[in-house]
Amino acid sequence: MQYIKAEKEHVTQIYQLVQDTIQAVYPKYYPQRIVSFFSELHSKDAIQTDIKSASVNVLFINHRLIGTGTVKENHITRLFVYPEFHNNGYGSLIMQHLETEIAVKYDTALLDASLCAVCFYEHKGYQTVSHHEIITDDGYSLVYDVMEKQLTACISASDKAKVVY
Questions:
Q1: What is the dihedral of CA 100, 58, 123, 146, to 10 degrees?
Q2: Percent of the chain with pLDDT over 90
Q3: Which residue of 3, 100, 106, 123 is 20 to 30 Å from 149, comparing CA positions?
Q4: Residue 107 CB partners (closer than 8 Å, separation 6+)
Q5: Residue 136: pLDDT band with limits 50, 70, 90
Q6: pLDDT at 132 exceeding the cut of 70
Q7: Residue 165: is it exposed, middle or buried by C-beta count within 10 angstroms (0-12/13-18/19+)?
């Protein structure tokens, strides 16, 4: 198992992971127009931009990229694990790393949770602080939660000085 900062050569693999996961999971929760919205939101260009800012992390198992997560300041975004690897603790492992990275500078972590992810994040100690809705140009409604978690217990002050990324 290898958890590292993503590099530009990982863009295609990350994009494929995100798109495959969206297409496999999101139709169970959202109409196709909203699934397409999510797919467009997580474009190759968006992933490339985040990699350039060194905010994307990837998880490899046996040299295969199976998960990713992104941190922008104290905001977790684009957390995806291939569906065939769900329920094996890999999403939790990525979350742990992202929270530790955030805890170096911030006391709380924030994230936007799709309907299919809210329960996962609640089990990780996140609480909904607000509900949001985006209405698409063609009248579809995208509903999601903004969630927050206090991180003060995730990493001690002495450990903050030891974390290197």
A1: 80
A2: 78
A3: 3
A4: 150, 151, 152
A5: confident
A6: yes
A7: exposed
Instruction: Estimate to the nearest angstrom the gap between the alpha carbon of 12 and the chain centroid.
Output: 17
CATH 3.40.630.30 fits domain 2-160: yes
Q: Which helix (H) or strand (E) holds 81?
A: strand 75-81
| Phi, psi dihedrals of residue 68, rounded to the nearest 5° | -150, 155
Residue extents of the structural domains in the chain: 2-160
Take residue 21 and report the two structure tokens written for it: 């996961």
Tokens of 84: 């065939």
Amino acid identity, position 141: S
Q: Which secondary structure element, helix H or strand E, spans residue 33, and what is its range? A: helix 32-41
| Three-class SS state of 161 | coil
